[in-house]
């Protein structure tokens, strides 16, 4: 079976949201739970380390949030994170420790693990990005199908029904997404894979792969 379970994609030691995934098998099962989880978790955060700055918004004292950024709750901005000029965080967002949310980047219903970078004109919606995942300039997650039907995850073994209408991408640890790429609804990218710039990606990309175009995916050689 394709390695698309939570344990296959993510290091749970690299997120404040590890308990969100307890009892779940696939990462997208967490998407409907993010908002309520943030509200619950936020109330447990140490006030010596986090400021509550609005309705269900907690920002680490060590984070750098630019004055022009907009953060709507529920949201948690982690320690040493950077939220840059005109970033738009629409709610239901966890920004991990040391993560970067860049100029004009928009987040909605997401979990960014520690050290994630979405630094330049990105849209990330209804998605989970693993430790040190990086999205190049202008790359986005497309989170709704054009026919508005429920999203399926297309695997080599067959489709998995998610029962979810809004589902962007599940991106594993240390994934590099090239500039200008579109991750279509229901995309799953395994750990340590690279996506070529200007790609249109759908389905499951195995871990340690190089995605060049649809139907042309190479396997990385061991060092």
SSE topology sketch:
Elements: H1 6-9, H2 34-42, E1 50-54, E2 57-60, E3 64-65, E4 70-71, E5 75-77, E6 82-83, E7 88-89, E8 93-95, E9 100-103, E10 106-112, E11 117-120, E12 123-129, E13 134-135, E14 140-141, E15 151-155, E16 158-164, E17 169-171, E18 176-177, E19 182-183, E20 187-189, E21 194-195, E22 200-201, E23 204-205, E24 209-213, E25 216-219
Parallel strand pairs: 2-5, 3-6, 4-7, 5-8, 6-9, 7-10, 8-10, 9-11, 10-12, 12-17, 13-18, 14-19, 17-20, 18-21, 19-22, 20-23, 21-24
Antiparallel strand pairs: 1-2, 15-16, 24-25
Structural class comes to mainly beta
Beta-strand content estimate: 35-45%
Element pattern in H and E: HHEEEEEEEEEEEEEEEEEEEEEEEEE
Enumerate how many helices there are, as a single number. Answer: 2
From the spread of the alpha carbons, the general shape counts as: globular
Helix content: under 10%
Q: What number is the mean pLDDT?
A: 96
Count of β-strands: 25
What characterizes the major β-sheet? Answer: 11 strands, mixed
Low-confidence stretches: none
Organism: Hominiventricola aquisgranensis
Protein name: UDP-N-acetylglucosamine pyrophosphorylase
Pfam family, one: GMPPB_C
Domain Mannose-1-phosphate guanyltransferase C-terminal: 72-140
